[in-house]
Every structure is written in C-alpha cells, then in structure tokens.
Specification:
With 266 residues, this protein is mostly helical. The chain has 13 helices and 3 strands, in the order E-H-H-E-E-H-H-H-H-H-H-H-H-H-H-H. It has 2 domains: 3-74, Multidrug-efflux Transporter Regulator, Chain: A, Domain 2 (Orthogonal Bundle), CATH 1.10.1660; 110-257, Globin-like (Orthogonal Bundle), CATH 1.10.490. 67% of the residues lie in helices and 3% in strands. Residues 77-104 form a coiled coil.
C-alpha cells in the first residue's frame, strides 16, 4: 500500500518539510510517485522512517544515521553503545547543572534582604559574585563548616552586616598598610593580621581552624573572585593575594609550633 507525504506526516508525527528534507538528504526517498508526481511511500519506507526517528530521538546526527542504515555490515550496537556513553555523560552534566541551580537559589536566599542603596551602604565596593559563591557552596556542600556559615550568614541582620563590614574594613586598612610598608609576609605583623582574619571568620560565620584558613587563603591566591570578597579590586595591589596567602600559612605554622598561644575561637 502506498501513502502520500501528508499521510506519512500524520502517521509519524513529523512535518512534511522534515520528510522533504530527508528525501533531499538521501536519507529517506519515497519508493514511488503518483501520476501527478507526488511522493508515495510504501510499508518498507515507513519501517525505515521508524528507524530514522528512533536514532534521531537518541540524538544521532543525520549523517551517522545514514551511515548505519546504508551499510548492511554496520554494527548498530557499537553506535548505540557509544551514544549510551554520551547520553550518560550528558545526564551527569545536567544533574550537576540542576545542583548548581539549586545551590545558587540557596546562596541568593542567604543573608539579609537589602535594597541596592542599603547594600552599597553596608558593603561598599565589596561585590557578591554569585558564580563564585555557588561554586564554593558546591565544593563545600557536605562540610559542617559551610553549612554553619550559611546558616549564620542567613541569620545576620543589617546591623550585624554593618558591624561585620566595619571590622573587615579596619582589618583591610591594616593589611594594605603592612603591604605598602614592606612588611614581610612571614613577619609578626602580617601573621597577626592573618590571625585576626581567622578569628573574624570564626566570630561571624563558622569556627575556622588553621587548616581551613589555609584552604580559604589558597582560594584568595588562586581565584580573583574570592580575593575580591576581602579586598575590592580598586584597593588591590599586584601580589597582595599571594602575600595574604603566605601570611596565613605562616600564621598556621606559627600556631602549630606553639609560638603563639592557642587562643580559643571567639
């Protein structure tokens, strides 16, 4: 039995334009023509169309489908296994994107809600980079410290944030002064500033032992987005992030050596 292009379009749920395209591409040419020159498809054509649509649903490109169907020796199983691997990788990627989106929602909901004017009043030039915050949330999602930091940040009031930022601003001014005056990164002054930063994190977010502080400082040195959370770009100096990182590592070593009292985190 023969079928017109309109009938096949209705059977298969594809457009007439798609069938014309398959014909021009040599992927599915109708077996006959009517006296008026219209395309006519037989049962074998419909079987081939089903195969094409099956491979298309799996995401195969048309040229690969043509190669599979045109070569009787082609091993369709190998093609399907390769596509299965690709789809599995894509599923994993999409799952990660879904997790990123969820974490981004959580990050956006963290902290006090401020108008743009209030945000500038409180945070000044310190900007919130959603991409970095989301990556950090993903990286430390299973960390007790990260969960505690998120919870405490969410509980801060506008007044808490203002106090926190004043404290951070005073510390930042001391850090810049130490850098500008040529203080060594492993000197007492720089290490004391590193310790102040560690205790600042403990007071406002989560307990920050030296090992955690080293990891945070490594992020400062490796990712400008992280360092911009403590020193805005307009105040940064070339090498300042690495300087702070070295000071943090030196302070952690000092504490491990017992050269400074093991003061409890406040």
């Amino acid at each position: 039995m023969n079928y017109s292009v309109g009938q096949v379009s209705a059977f298969a749920g594809v457009t007439v334009r798609t069938l014309h395209h398959y014909d021009k591409a040599g992927l599915l040419s109708p077996s006959g023509r009517s006296d008026a020159g219209y395309r006519l498809y037989d049962d074998a054509d419909l079987v081939r169309l089903q195969q094409i649509l099956f491979y298309r649903e799996l995401g195969f490109p048309l040229d690969e489908i043509a190669a599979i169907l045109s070569d009787p020796q082609a091993n369709a199983v190998d093609h399907l296994r390769a596509r299965q691997r690709q789809l599995s990788e894509e599923i994993a990627r999409l799952r990660r994107l879904a997790e990123v989106a969820q974490r981004a929602i959580e990050v956006q909901q963290t902290g006090v809600s401020l108008t743009p004017e209030e945000r500038f009043e409180v945070f000044g030039e310190i900007t919130f980079d959603l991409s970095y915050a989301t990556e950090a949330e993903l990286k430390w999602a299973h960390s007790h410290g990260q969960r505690q930091a998120m919870a405490r940040a969410a509980a801060h009031t506008k007044e808490d944030w203002a106090h926190l930022m004043r404290e951070a601003g005073a510390w930042r001014a001391e850090l810049l002064a130490a850098w500008d005056e040529g203080e060594p990164s492993d000197g007492e002054r720089a290490m004391d500033l590193a310790e102040e930063h560690r205790l600042h994190i403990s007071r406002w977010f989560t307990s920050c032992p030296p090992d955690m502080h080293r990891r945070i400082a490594d992020d400062f040195a490796a990712d400008p987005r992280a360092f911009a959370l403590v020193v805005p770009p307009s105040q940064q100096r070339p090498g300042l992030a690495a300087y702070l990182c070295k000071a943090v590592h030196a302070n952690a070593a000092r504490r491990a050596d017992g050269r400074t009292p093991l003061e409890g985190d406040r």
